[in-house]
Design brief:
Keywords: Iron, Iron-sulfur, Magnesium, Metal-binding, Oxidoreductase, Thiamine pyrophosphate. One of its GO terms (molecular function) is metal ion binding. This is 2-oxoacid:ferredoxin oxidoreductase subunit beta. The chain has 300 residues and is of the alpha/beta class. It is 33% helix and 17% strand. It is built from 10 helices and 11 strands. Strands 1, 2, 3, 4, 7, 8, 9, 10 and 11 form a 9-stranded mixed beta sheet that branches. Strand 7, helix 6 and strand 8 form a beta-alpha-beta unit. The two termini are 16 Å apart. Bound molecules: iron/sulfur cluster (SF4).
């Protein structure tokens, strides 16, 4: 096997694969924010993995110079959890669209909040299924009419950040693809967080969504960190109820003003790996307890 050559501080996390997203797509900025975050962290490229589902967002791992997998529709999260549990030392990034994660993958999205296994979920929110010609995604508001659908949407929308909070994610943030520095900073904080993180990234799809455009978002987003009293960190059970309620109310704020930034960060709920080892202390010990069975069957 070829040994990875890694020069600390100078590794290029963007590979030379040509990106084929549409011009003006918010996905470009997300790739930049991810590579900036990994570079700033001086991340060992052998310690980070990118897993995606199906959709335009699913191509993200193709453009990163790290290990990755482009998996099944809606199944990126369980695949990523498998990677994390096989090697808890890995930093596992999950990339998926609103359609992928809140449509067919909604059950997995919710289950991961309860599990809190320590993965970082980046949910690209552009309100449409871009890869399949712009059908209404689960984040499209009731009554919204974009150019790719013949009539206004007759379904209500899911708010990804509010759903992540309700599901139990211990780090929840909302970002905007054009605010690359803020997004990159949020990704670093999420990678340093012990439990599972969900970062909703608002991004334009200029090809199919002519309502939620770059300018539409620019006029509305405001940064939570500009409010000096904003403190999303929960470090004791006493402060959780108040900070959770404030985070939920802020996540539900949508319209003329849309808040972006870290909504909630709970530092006291133990991740799944710690819960496992509290019951089975040798759970992640190598070689595993069933090593003899593996040897016998040629799995090692
Ligand atoms: Fe981006 Fe939309 Fe084009 Fe997909 S269809 S690459 S989301 S602009």
């Amino acid at each position: 096997m070829q040994k990875t050559v890694y020069n600390k501080g100078s590794y290029n996390f963007r590979n030379n694969v040509t990106i084929d997203w549409c011009p003006g797509c918010g996905d470009f900025a997300i790739v930049t924010a991810v590579t900036q975050a990994l570079s700033k962290m001086d991340m060992d490229p052998t310690k980070v993995v990118a897993i995606s589902g199906i959709g335009c967002s699913g191509k993200t791992p193709h453009y990163l110079n790290i290990a990755g997998a482009h998996t099944l529709h809606g199944r990126a999260i369980p695949y990523a959890v498998g990677v994390k549990l096989a090697n808890p030392d890995l930093n596992v990034l999950v990339m998926g669209g609103d359609g992928d994660m809140l449509g067919i993958g909604a059950g997995h999205f919710v289950a991961e909040g309860r599990r809190n296994s320590g993965i970082v979920v980046l949910l690209y929110n552009n309100a449409v299924y871009g890869l399949t010609k712009g059908q209404a995604a689960p984040t499209m508001p009731l009554g919204e009419k974009v150019k790719s659908i013949p009539r206004p949407s007759i379904l209500g929308k899911i708010n990804p950040s509010a759903l992540a909070l309700a599901s139990g994610y211990t780090f929840v943030a909302r970002a905007f693809s054009s605010e690359i520095a803020q997004l990159s900073d949020i990704i670093i904080k999420a990678l340093n967080h012990k439990g599972s993180s969900m970062i909703e990234v608002l991004q334009p799809c200029p090809t199919y969504n002519d309502v939620n455009t770059l300018d539409w978002y620019r006029k509305r987003v405001y940064k939570l960190e500009n409010d000096k009293s904003w403190d999303p960190e929960v470090n004791s059970a006493d402060e959780d109820e108040e900070k959770f309620s404030r985070a939920y109310e802020t996540a539900m704020t949508w319209g003329d003003k849309i808040p972006i930034g870290i909504l909630y960060k709970n530092n006291i709920i133990p991740p799944f790996t710690e819960r496992l080892t509290s019951i089975v202390p040798d759970y992640f010990k190598y070689p595993p307890a069933n090593q003899d069975i593996c040897d016998k069957n040629g799995y090692t």
